[in-house]
Amino acid sequence: MTTTGIRSVGGALDRVDALEKVTGRARYAYENSPRELVYAFPVQATVAKGEIVHVGVDAVLKQPGVIAAIWHGNAPRLAPSDDDELAVLQSRRVAYRGQYIAVVVAETPEDAREAAGMLRVEYAAEDHDVDMRPDHPRMYRPDHVNPNFQSDTQRGDPDAALTTAPVVVDHTYSTPAEHNNPMEPHATVALWDGDGLTLFDSTQGASALRSVIAPLFGMPPAQVRVIAPYIGGGFGSKIEVHPHVVLAALAAKQVGRPVKLAVTRQQMFAITGYRTPTVQRVRLGAETDGRLIAVTHDAFEQTSILVEFAEPTAIVTRMMYAAPHRRTTHRLVRLNVPTPTWMRAPGEAPGMFALESAMDELAIACGVDPVELRVRNEPAKDPDTGLPFSSRNLVACLREGARRFGWAGRDPEPGARRVGRTLLGTGVAASTYPTYRAPSSARVRAEPDGRFTVSIAAADIGTGARTVLTQIAADALDAPAGLVHVEVGDSALPWAVLAGGSMGTGSWGTAVVRACEALVAELGRRGGDVPPGGVEAAADTSQEVRGQAEFARHAFGAQFAEVGVDADTGETRVHRLLGVFAAGRIINPKTARSQFVGGMTMGLSMALMEESVMDREFGDYLNHDFAQYHVAAHADVRDIEAFWLEEEDPHLNPMGSKGIGEIGTVGTAAAVANAVHHATGVRIRDLPIRLDKLVR
Amino acid sequence: MTISWDNPGTGGGREARVKGEANTNGDGAAPGPVTVDLRLSVNGRRHPITVDTRETLLDTLRERMDLTGTKKGCDHGQCGACTVLVGGRRVKSCLTLTVTVDDRDITTVEGLSADGVPHPLQAAFIENDALQCGYCTPGQLCSAVGMLAEVADGWPSAVTPGLDGEVDLSKLADEEIRERMSGNLCRCGAYPGIVAAIGQVAR
Prior knowledge:
Distance between the termini of chain B: 44 Å
Number of domains of chain A: 3
Strand content of chain B: 15-25%
CATH superfamily of the largest domain in chain A: Aldehyde oxidase/xanthine dehydrogenase, molybdopterin binding domain
InterPro entries (chain A): Ald_Oxase/Xan_DH_a/b, Ald_Oxase/Xan_DH_a/b_sf, Ald_Oxase/xanthine_DH-like, AldOxase/xan_DH_MoCoBD1, AldOxase/xan_DH_MoCoBD2, AldOxase/xan_DH_Mopterin-bd_sf
Structural class of chain B: alpha+beta
Oligomer: heterodimer
Domain Aldehyde oxidase/xanthine dehydrogenase a/b hammerhead (chain A): 23-127
CATH topology of the largest domain in chain A: Aldehyde Oxidoreductase, domain 4
Organism (chain A): Sphaerisporangium corydalis
Keywords (chain A): Molybdenum, Oxidoreductase
Strand content of chain A: 25-35%
Number of domains of chain B: 2
Protein name (chain A): Xanthine dehydrogenase family protein molybdopterin-binding subunit
């Protein structure tokens, strides 16, 4: 076969689906309209705990265009599931305010919505408890934290070490509930036919969704097809199967017509998950030169009555810095609240806010530069597992970031720089994210005209997966990227792990490389001859991934922030954010930069704005729209830069890559909070950094 | 324009319209929706269409005309994903009732390119990787077209409150672009690429 000798990996290939997206041709879930379709609009519980005693469907059924009103009294029965969120309309119990308790199906969206608003529901309400606090009497230790880490770990005797350490920092930090808020609200179009169920869904994992939905309806997975070529962001909220998917499928089954259902932006605050609020106590014991003797990190979180979702908030502290005495713990309380879920860097993002804020406080307590403090506490191997790191370049990131940012000569004195009304400060924090890889499968086909088609049920939620898999396949086939077409987002394609845990490229890329290698071998056996019907090869990486050598695999980074705080109003602006990352080989510098910068933007947003406020009286998230739940807008993002180091790591995957989708969000909020302290002398330990916390 | 009421007594379908006096029909059933016949001018073409008076321009475009490039992000005018151009000015189609625009020229993202050639902003968005998931992108693009026209017409902003006459687009500052584009949220954080793309086209 002809060899090009040109490597595609490492090149700044334009996003291969960009033209579809900028022209509006890319079709997202709700934009599929099967013939005879009807519209569903859900009804939400208006109590946070209790029982439904009456549902007034008769009046609703008389409304124009209404086809059905479905509730627990007439809903199709579902098979039992170990996820109680998916037992939709199966019981009269209400577990949280906003839970779906009925759905109205009508001919038009207007008819459905109007009729749904008229549905009268009577409840026997019970007293609810939505108040997450560390001293809650029902705090308990979960069996494990997500996905399968020990809840608590201990090495040495941290309590004793903390009583004798020359310098001790002991503070409690908190992060609020935060909602993922992808720009595309969750949506499902459900269609039943003789072959089973087809779902056009906005999901981060077509294979996973199929395997969850099929058994609920008593079918084998092969009878469910999930189609999701374009997904308008997810940030974790489209990993788990949420109740609306079941509701759409159930409604379509009941009325015998295809059903469209979109979760509204407001409903998303109850239905599609969020990051749990956390309270975290961090204790650091150190020598006077800043070398850690002991570190403890105790995290308190909430979950719902229906599902135990245990955010792994403190796990970063297990591997981040060297210290002979260490402990991490996680405690949960089950409340009458919506079910939390994965949100970009689940665990790492809130956990590193606390740890990296505490490290800044330790640097000040010891009079050591915060960059230098982190360098002094660099471990030789993973302090938790004792495993060697496959690669760890945190120190190089800190040094390179300090050089690019202009950190040298920084005056550590807080509140000492003022220009007009603006107090200026700079801060630094470390970033990290684990490098996971999961089994997947892929198929590749050579066409007689020299083109190749790569098929894998991966998801491109905006990460650039289609683009980097095109490059990875091109190199494995030794073909130009222009001859490679990658198909993703369909459960009918070879099964693949979902887009989560920053493991997409590593997992899918391995499968694609192995399939391409098999095809190249097959083409070699055929002397390069491709018959009119084409030649196919496939690969399944289950064995390879499960058999990989044991290493501590993590990406690292360093983030530097410069802020200006209005001395009179407390208004905080991030003037500059600069991140340097070490994440193995970067497949595509263009899409990678967007991933890093996008992650950092979400971190900036977490630092200054994001906060879902629990309404204790009514028991739901009060500020449930973009007017009240603020995310960073254009004007908030000024000078933001991402760089990376060349990092060779032979222990990862055929590409030598680490995941980059989440690390940008880790440590950012701490860098901003540390800069705010440097600017003002006020230490904000409770996110977000609102002006009312700065003005006293 | 013809205003009609559905007759619920005949099933309430879109075809079963009768002209009537009011939302009452004496048999105790709920009133049917009020519909209006109009001609929508979208991307240079006139479309005769009957719409529910409750229908937003966003839903008409997406659900009735299969112009799904315009996106629904919040349905409350808070995210900008639904931005289209009406008479060359950017509006949020989720806050616009379709019956109010029957005599206006509407441009959606599908109408930005001419003869299959991408609009310069579309090309610049690709070059600057000014998108990730792509869901806010049509709104960003329509908003950018409208924004550049506003600047050219000398409309003020919080950055430049006292504009006199026309503004030289070649001197459009990033800060000005950021301010004027802040009604369009992007959760992926593609803002720097969007600002660079708009600046590149403007200058």
